[in-house]
Structure prediction request, 857 residues.
Amino acid sequence: MADANLLELEQIETFYGLSQVLFGISLSIGRGEMVTLMGRNGMGKTTTVRSVLGLTRARAGSIRFEGQEIRALDAYRVAKLGVGLVPEGRQIFPNLTARENLVATAANRAGAAEPWTLDRVFRLFPRLAERGASMGTQLSGGEQQMLAIGRALMTNPKLLILDEATEGLAPLLRAEIWRCLAGLKAAGLAILLIDKNVEALTRIADRHYIIEKGQVVWTGTSPQLAAASDVQQRYLSI
Amino acid sequence: MKAALELRAPFVLLVVAGLALLPVYTAASGDQFVLTLFTRIVILAVAATSLNLILGYGGMVSFGHAAYLGIGAYAVGILAEEGVGSGFVQWPFALALSALFALIVGALSLRTRGVYFIMITLAFAQMVYYVAAGLDRYGGDDGLTIYSRSRFAGLIDLASPTQFYYLCLALLLASIAFTWRLINSRFGMVIRASRSNDRRMRAIGFPTFRYRLAAFVIAGMWCGLAGALLANHTDFVSPAMMYWTRSGDLIVMVVFGGMGSLFGPLFGAISLLVLEEGLSRVTEYWPIILGPLLLLIVLFARGGIDGLLGRIRRG
Amino acid sequence: MLLLLEQCLNGLQFGLLLFLLAAGLTLVFGIMDLVNLAHGSLYMMGAYFAASFSAWTGDFFAGALLALGATLLLGIVLEMVALRPLYGRDHLDHVLGTFGLILFFNELVRLVWGPAGLSLPLPPALNAAVEIFGIYYPVYRLLIILVALLVALFLYLVVMKTRLGMLIRAGASNREMVGALGVDIKLLFTLVFGLGAALAGLAGLMQAPILTVQIGMGENILILAFVVIVIGGIGSIRGAFVAAVFVGLVDTLGRAFLPDLLRLVLSVTAASTVARSLSSMLIYLLMAIVLALRPQGLFPVAGR
Prediction:
């Protein structure tokens, strides 16, 4: 039932210039679901995210958000519809303070009853409250990651997309972020997660897609993935 | 990766033949104006060809190339004013001076890229402009009249429009042939490769800076020659020759004609000047048409005339 | 000593005017990555509008206000119609395309206002001199300094203290991400460009009574503005301010005192010849030095 799904991709084909990167990706995310995109580097995970946002427009296929076709929309329109992006590499604004990073693009377009505010984000990430006046470049990797998540939350999205949000972080920080994401899911936020840690993801996420060479090669629930060690071995080990 | 000389062959042959036969037409019809116009076109084509070497093939957007036109022209003008009328002295001096200036500018600017490179070459050209404008002895802002053209001990009489035209044409064809040889040599390969991937070329072991500087100096020197020709053509030199908008004109010629194509600069020079002439007969406010036209060409016909020719041939 | 003070004030005034021009240029280049050679044309249009509107209304200030509005409008139209297609393209394309616009505007002015320049007379109230620090200094030039400083303050407040300013700064370092977070980049660009156009127009109209209003007046000062932003750091308004004042002072003081300085070592005729060329070249030498030592400028924007 297409209506039940928040985000639905159907046979997406995306190119970078002349070279094709996505060869018919199909996936779906329901409201309140946490879904992951896994696969080795360079398989097309980030490209899929960019296609959803319209940053790299998909050339064929259909992308529907809440039933509305968004494939050909500009990035800002997709974001305005309720997609929040925490990009690969965090990409916080280096010449703004932490507080400004959160406030600059903040919005509450859907008129949520209990929106994400600066206070709420600071309560979620107390460390950011302390570092509010620091410039983006002065923050540590973990703080920047929290800032990137907070920045996306401040746009009050219906779907939060995180691309390699724990890469390069210490294990404790990684656990903290997964804990935070689990909490967000519990509060009803739909999440699309690109990450590598199968064990952690099978604990907090509902369903998984594995992408290899621009195509979905496996999809299933967390219990299914946890049991399929041969799949893990084949597609996810280095 | 040999430059495709043969693809545009029919069109090019037609143009070159037309240029070669022009004085015949002039003699028959008595229309001196066309000869004067095309002499100017050919001279500017030499300048544009020199720019094409570094801009079209090398990707170095020099916005100060008109400076060499000025330097070459002033070299001739100043020597003529001081009583040295021999072309055998004037022209090598023009070449040497241009080469020297190009060496200095290149050494300083080739370390930068992108818009910084554009600005710094522009700034240097403006410097030369101001120096020339400050030369009271040689006319300053008003410019300097040259009373007799460069003398070549009777070998050729530059005062004769036909002889002068053929000299310019010969030099243009020599420029193009020289460019062709250069581009297809190892030197040329390095220049073209370092346009898109300087780092890789350096990693392989090519001292790209030296190559690019050499190309820059060659281009400057050659444009100085065009300057010497120009001085003889107009019998007049002035700082306006090297005002930065003239550098813009040269870039337009290279892009119009098709960057990185052998005959592109010639097509560009012909197009731009003929267009200017033609439009100026339609309205005295012709740049009002040329300006937006330039923008449209940038937006839609980026490959220039050469690009269009390629499309026609393929289609 | 008094001459030095007067020249310093002149240098400050020229520098601040350059700042107005450079601020717009650096904003546009920094945020939109657009090299706009036609920025000088907007400066010229500001001056021409001011001359015409002042003559039409009979009032200097009304004319200035109308000119400002007209230039702002012109900038917005220009951005939407001619410049949007250039975004994302090679800088060379920008240079060529906007070069075409310069030709267009110069000729348009010739068509509408004729080839001779215009003049913009000052109202008697402004055409006076006032005594400060022991010298008589024109009121109008003081006004220019004041207005420019106020505008600089206004820009500072907008860029550093408002949401729009945050977006401008964010856009300067990562345009794509700003769009991905729900901000209409196209609208932001149009606003920034409009702001830049208004600044250029303001500089033009303020300069109009002092210099003649003529075709091509934009090109000369445009190069200086580019030099300023290269020295200051592309995308940095603070850099533009510091560099502009510095350049203004160096240029004015150089022109004023270089002949005398050179006369100490050269003959009178040689000194005046060299001085004239050298003082024009001074700014470019400065830029060359800065580029050699610190190529990203004095106040580079992080993330570029």
